[in-house]
Design goal:
7 helices, mainly alpha, signal
Length: 133
């Protein structure tokens, strides 16, 4: 019975180990993937019938982690999401979750990865030109 349990444990862990990427994410890769996900998520919320009412007056969110203006853009967007006054919007789970996740990315970029990130451009207008998906 003992051998059977070990064999079962090993057979369940082998596929997990093989599917795991062998390098841990760096600060840069984590920030890059979060920014892409948040950009896509905000665009999806603008198109979703349940949240489009809340997101209609919100600016497009395009996060380029190489642009120094991204921190200002995130602060502004977080304050807009937190400032939603319409009762229906203020309690919409997806909109609130977007704001919380955006705040996490902001903290991650400003505190955790502060020395690892290098801004290569300073073009605030480029963040207003939404590339679309």
């Amino acid at each position: 019975m003992f051998i059977f349990h070990h064999l079962l444990l090993v057979s369940s862990l082998v596929p997990l180990a093989l599917s795991y990427s062998f390098y841990p994410p760096t600060c840069y890769t984590k920030v890059l993937s979060m920014a892409r996900e948040l950009t896509q998520w905000a665009a999806d919320l603008k198109r979703d019938p349940e949240t489009s009412y809340c997101m209609a007056h919100m600016p497009d969110l395009y996060l380029d982690v190489h642009n120094a203006c991204v921190m200002y853009k995130m602060r502004t967007y977080i304050s807009l999401v937190e400032g939603l006054r319409d009762r229906r919007c203020a309690y919409t789970r997806e909109v609130r979750k977007l704001g919380v996740t955006l705040r996490q990315l902001f903290i991650f970029m400003s505190e955790k990865c502060h020395g690892d990130l290098v801004f290569t451009i300073y073009d605030c207008a480029a963040l207003e030109r939404y590339p679309g998906f």
